[in-house]
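Suppose you are handed only these lines of text.
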Amino acid sequence: MVLYAATSNPGKLREFATSASRQGIEVLPLPRLKEIPEPIEDAPTFMGNAELKARAYSLTEPGALVFADDSGLEVLTLNNDPGVRSARYADDAGFKGSGTKDQRNNALLLQNLGTNPNRTARFVCTLALARAGEILLRAEGTVQGEILSSPRGTDGFGYDPLFLIPALNLTFAELSPEQKWERSHRGRAFRTLLDQITTNRLIG
Ligand code: IMP
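From them, the structure of the protein bound to inosinic acid can be written out as follows.
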């Protein structure tokens, strides 16, 4: 049986599919995803948003196992902002910096942190698996790090160039895709979900 991913992000799809194939599970993009009206992600938590997406999208493919993800960055000293608003942090704040959306989000984060020495942060990824509108499984993965004062590295996306793994003295944007997947919130959450799928014999 196939596991359908409710994401059209090619990078995420590739990571999910590669990881699942190691356990003999096939991950495919949910058919006609682009034609399905996007549910409004208005839950106050990552898991709430992952669940509402999984429920809505699983109704479009009856009988299929469909998973959705939601993720973001939490900075301790900023009351866990950007949190569920990670993707639209700068836009929501009306922050008018230059550059891409990711660059503006990063610029606002640096502005809000200023010279604050407490730069502890974590990425969170939540995954919800549903069938016919019913949530069957949930998984969460986190990774702890620190926010640098200026970006480093060219790989990755989003807040990766600011997110330092102190034990390696490397940012997520300085890791290879494989190194990042091994340590990342998304890799951790997805491996947990796969284990649960196998344990619950949902695929076999
Ligand atoms: P999404 O909902 O999983 O697509 O992620 C929401 C936002 O969180 C992204 O637009 C990024 O700003 C941020 N984010 C989530 N995961 C990562 C990551 O692995 N690296 C950098 N930023 C991330």
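What can we learn from it? Helices lie at 10-21, 46-58, 89-92, 101-113, 177-183, 185-199. The beta strands are 2-5, 26-29, 65-75, 81-82, 120-131, 134-147, 163-165, 170-171.
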